[in-house]
Design brief:
Strand content: 15-25%
Order of helices and strands: EHEHEHEHEHHEHHHE
InterPro entries: KR_dom, NAD(P)-bd_dom_sf, Sc_DH/Rdtase_CS, SDR_fam
Protein name: SDR family oxidoreductase
Number of helices: 9
CATH topology: Rossmann fold
Largest sheet: 7 strands, parallel
Shape: globular
Strand order of the largest sheet: 3-2-1-4-5-6-7
Distance between the termini: 35 Å
Keywords: Oxidoreductase
GO molecular function: oxidoreductase activity, acting on the CH-OH group of donors, NAD or NADP as acceptor
Helix content: 40-55%
Number of strands: 7
Structural class: alpha/beta
CATH class: Alpha Beta
Family: Belongs to the short-chain dehydrogenases/reductases (SDR) family.
Number of domains: 1
Length: about 240
């Protein structure tokens, strides 16, 4: 059956691949974005929803808009994320707080807004997109790593809190994936990162999307509180 799916931060990269994977499977998919041009999302058959995850009111309205068009949200994928990389002594409080506000608190806002409908329906799937960085750490990314590690504790707490209502919470932890974020790195930086991957290559957004779709599927109905690495072996399941 077609489900109502909401993907945050799905206008490019992993988020867009995730949104398309659900749409290709017949689900009705809404995607939050901050850009002024929703055209690419509309052309892909997705419902664009303008939303800044740092604004609680906008997050609640986004969930309401998705529900009005497709029915109450049954699957939430919290994917939106930002970086402000700095070494510790150069990192400002704003650098640290801004990354956590979008990556971790933004996920909290989206989950809280969508959970009411899931509780009424007594079913739901929530998948949080973390990162291998949140498990291994990375110099210059203390803020990003902290935000992505926080998603694991957040998901596992809610898995225990809401499991009796048939709502699952799982985490996907991508490694080095070929996106705009990694393309911004120098060739040497990219090569150094790939050298740490046992499979010896970047991942593709579609490979992360497949893992997300699995965790939101009926086949994964007895999986909750899990962290699924999609990192070519870089983190070895940490």
């Amino acid at each position: 059956m077609s489900r109502s799916v909401l993907v945050t931060g799905g206008n490019r990269g992993i988020g867009l691949a995730v949104a398309r994977a659900f749409a290709d499977a017949g689900d009705q998919v809404a995607v939050t974005h901050r850009s002024d041009d929703p055209g690419p999302l509309e052309r892909a058959g997705l419902l664009p929803v303008r939303c800044d995850l740092t604004d609680p009111g906008q997050v609640e309205r986004a969930v309401e808009e998705a529900g009005a068009r497709h029915g109450p949200v049954e699957v939430l994928v919290a994917n939106a994320g930002v970086t402000r990389d700095r070494l510790l002594l150069r990192m400002t409080e704003d650098d640290f707080a801004a990354v956590l506000d979008t990556n971790l608190t933004g996920a909290f806002r989206a989950v809280r807004a969508a959970a009411a409908g899931m509780l009424r329906a007594r079913k739901g799937r929530v998948v949080l997109v973390s990162s291998v960085t949140g498990l291994l750490g990375s110099p210059g990314q203390a803020n990003y790593a902290a935000s992505k590690a926080g998603l694991v504790g957040f998901a596992r707490s809610l898995a225990r809190e809401l499991g009796s209502r048939n709502i699952t919470f799982n985490v996907v932890a991508p490694g080095i994936v070929d996106t705009d974020m990694t393309r911004a790195l120098s060739a040497r930086q990219r090569a150094d990162l790939v050298a740490k991957v046992p499979l010896g290559r970047h991942g593709a957004p579609r490979e992360v999307a497949a893992a997300v779709r699995f965790l939101a599927s009926e086949e994964a109905s007895y999986i909750t509180g899990a962290v699924l690495p999609v990192d070519g072996g870089m983190g070895m399941g940490h």
